[in-house]
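I'll show a record.
***
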Amino acid sequence: MDVVREGGIGFLGSRLKRLGERMQAGAARITSDAGLPVQPMHMAFLAALDGDARTVGQLVEAIGISQPGVTRGIGQLADLGLVRSEQGEDQRQRTISLTPTGAAVLARARVHVWPRVEDAVRMLLGEGADIFMAQITALETALAATPLDMLAARSGAPALTIRDYSDDLARDFADINVEWISAMFHLEAADRAVLDHPREQIIDAGGTILFVEARGLGIVGTGALRPSGDGGLELTKMGVRASARGLKAGEFLLAALIERAQAMGHDPFYLLTNARCAAAVHLYEKLGFQHDPGIMARYGARYERCDVAMRYRSSPNIRPSAGR
């Protein structure tokens, strides 16, 4: 599996870097075959200095790389005797120019290296060569105007979204719940009845199942609202995949479930859990659930593992409809 290729457009930078390294490796062999002492990365320096002396700042602008990168490249060319550094008219700056040896290397590169590399690239790209180069130019221009991180900040796509139940998500509903229940407890008959038949047990009974989807990860969490038959509504079978912990998907999902429950109008709205689920209990408390002995007495026998019963009161921390 090629992770970079399979990563799609989000891995474009890594893919272009890898592509550049492969092309540079081939160009290096062509340069070596031509008997030149330089590397492909030096060609832009030689071209920028063709007939002109430039300051480091001017080379940064001409080549489009950082000042440390320019300084490093110039140092390498100076060691090879291909460029020289002289005091400029402005005493605070030095100018870089080609030595006669450097000019001779540039001339040989123009004849023996650059045409061969260009021919090879055109063979790779075929009739789309000019279109591809135009796209690269457009990409460079756009990034120069607005860096990638600023563009990302403008993206309106939410990281987390809520999805309603559909039968194609039944497997996700079961798998997510089996994962967390099996990690700490054992599946009870009451669990299996709901997980094996979510539509019949919850949807057709007037309840709701919601899912939280994380961009790039897919469905990462789920939770259900199940009418009790006596006017009550149970928050049940809520879990988040272990691989998605830290995304606050659970809090996002719980806020959506509370909002949906409030619209349904049942009373009491409650949940049954276990003290071993400490992180979940803390989240329930944060969003408005309170421990309630009456709920325990009324519904607690439903699960063997139940030793915590909570009833929803209210919470100022909920942000309804965010990102939905």
